[in-house]
Every structure is written in structure tokens, then in C-alpha cells.
UniProtKB/TrEMBL annotation:
Enzyme class: oxidoreductase
EC number: 1.5.1.2
GO cellular component, one term: cytoplasm
Xref: PROSITE patterns: P5CR
GO molecular function, one term: pyrroline-5-carboxylate reductase activity
Designated gene of the protein: proC
Family (UniProt): Belongs to the pyrroline-5-carboxylate reductase family.
NCBIfam families given in the database record: proC (TIGR00112)
Protein name, entry field: Pyrroline-5-carboxylate reductase
SUPFAM superfamilies: 6-phosphogluconate dehydrogenase C-terminal domain-like, NAD(P)-binding Rossmann-fold domains
Length: 272
């Protein structure tokens, strides 16, 4: 990406994370520019990353090969329609806005190469994961550019069907909140068992971190890791049995299905 000129439309948290990831990978500040309506945010990003910031979106995209749309979904239509006349046909459009489909982006921007991405908030720590979908106009080289862009903040996975981005949203886009909810519940349960709240919280957070590292670094699937730590008639089995008696797996399936349905509904509403 060091030879690719990239423009960010919107310089909020996710854009700042991507910019920071690119800079950490050696992409020069001169190759990155961004626009944002907030003077304070422009000053903050310029000071932190040394890139050029603009109030005008059209100025930001001039000369860029990749244009990253990082604005809120609710304003995407207006931003795209105002920007369309200032884009070149060969510029790659990368959208990280949830709920805005390729068809809508093409209707607002004209027919051009578009990659839709669904990142998640751990990208702020460069530990994210993103689902990517490219329309038919995206070249192999542009796919590589998009993959490297999102790879700057974590894992980037390609999807063959755009509709699967709703599933990505349900699993990983919204997924951090599910783990946070479990952490909340475990901390509260530890406190009810007599632990000081701070101790219960530390035990919960470190256990979550350790379990995640075991799952990602061991090369063993989660089901087998669970079996290995579940001794017959032991304490872990007692807890697992209680989870399953309460319909844990079915509840997770219902929750993710609800998230996927809502993602599809939002795409329909926001893409008009």
C-alpha cells in the first residue's frame, strides 16, 4: 500500500484506526489524506498521524486511487451524491458503513469498483476482523488493496455473496458486545458468590483473554478445547450442564439470527 494514495471520507474512530494501522505498516503520511466536517477532529488526526486533512470531501479525493467511505450510514446517501461528480471511474470505493449495499452505493456514485466491508470495534486495537465483498468491477489488484487496507487492523476475510455480510454483522460485527455481556454476567455472578467486585472482574477479564488466546493460537477448535477442560463429574461439567439445560446454544442461534435480520432490515431502510 506504500505506493497507493488513499483518501478517507470521515475521520472518526474507525477511520483513525485504519490510518494508524497503515502508518504502522510503513505507508507514508503523504500517501494518506482525509476529510471531516469537524475542525477539532481534523486537528486531532493531523497531529496524531501527520496526514493532510480537509473540510471539503472533493479536495480529499483528488488524486486518490482508493477512497474509503467512513461516514455514518444515515448521511452516506447525501455524502455520496455530493461526491459523485468529483470521482474518477477507476477509483476504488471502499465502504466501511454498515447497512449500505453495493447497489445503493452504485446508484448514488455511479457504476464503479466498490468493496463493502464489515469491520468490528477491536479494529481500534488492531485486533479486528472484517468481512469483505467486491462487486464485479473490482480488479484483482484492487481486491488486494482492499484486503491490505482492512488487514492493517486485523484479519480480512472475503465473501462470495454480499448477503453474507448480514451474517458477518451478526457474528463479528455485533459479536464483541456478546462477549462483554458474558463478562458482565460472570463478574456479577462472582460477586454474588462472595468475591469482591474488582477481583471478580479481573478474574473474568483475564480468563476471557486467556481463553481467546488458547482458541486462536492452539490450532484446536473450540469444541475440543472445551472437552479438554471439562472433567467428568467435575465443576466445569456442572456449569456446562447448567448452561445447556437453559438452552444456551439455541439462545445464541436465536440472538445471531435476530442480529442478521436486523442488519438486512437496516440495509433496506438506509439504502433507499
Amino acid at each position: 500500500m506504500s505506493d497507493t494514495r488513499i483518501a478517507f471520507i470521515g475521520a472518526g474512530n474507525m477511520a483513525a484506526s485504519l490510518i494508524g494501522g497503515l502508518r504502522a505498516q510503513g505507508v507514508p503520511a503523504a500517501a494518506i489524506r482525509a476529510s471531516d466536517p469537524g475542525a477539532e477532529q481534523r486537528a486531532l488526526i493531523a497531529a496524531e498521524h501527520g496526514i493532510e486533512l480537509f473540510a471539503d470531501n472533493a479536495e480529499a479525493v483528488a488524486g486518490a486511487e482508493v477512497v474509503v467511505l467512513a461516514v455514518k450510514p444515515q448521511v452516506m446517501k447525501a455524502v455520496c451524491q455530493a461526491l459523485a461528480a468529483h470521482l474518477r471511474p477507476e477509483q476504488l470505493i471502499v465502504s466501511i458503513a454498515a447497512g449500505i449495499g453495493c447497489a445503493s452505493l452504485e446508484a448514488w456514485l455511479g457504476e464503479r469498483p466498490v468493496v463493502r466491508c464489515m469491520p468490528n470495534t477491536p479494529a481500534l486495537l488492531r485486533q479486528g476482523v472484517s468481512g469483505l465483498f467486491a462487486n464485479a468491477r473490482v480488479s484483482a489488484a484492487q481486491r488486494q488493496q482492499a484486503e491490505q487496507l482492512l488487514g492493517a487492523v486485523g484479519l480480512a476475510l472475503w465473501l462470495d455473496e454480499e448477503r453474507l455480510l448480514d451474517a458477518v454483522t451478526a457474528v463479528s460485527g455485533s459479536g464483541p458486545a456478546y462477549f462483554f455481556l458474558l463478562m458482565e454476567a460472570m463478574t456479577a455472578a462472582g460477586e454474588q458468590l462472595g468475591l469482591p467486585r474488582d477481583t471478580a472482574a479481573q478474574l473474568t477479564l483475564q480468563t476471557a483473554l486467556g481463553a481467546a488466546r488458547m482458541a486462536t493460537e492452539s490450532g484446536v477448535d473450540a469444541a475440543e478445547l472445551r472437552r479438554r477442560v471439562t472433567s467428568p463429574n467435575g465443576t466445569t461439567e456442572a456449569a456446562i450442564n447448567a448452561f445447556q439445560a437453559g438452552g444456551f446454544e439455541a439462545l445464541v442461534q436465536q440472538a445471531l439470527a435476530a442480529a442478521a435480520r436486523r442488519s438486512a432490515e437496516l440495509a433496506e431502510q438506509l439504502g433507499r
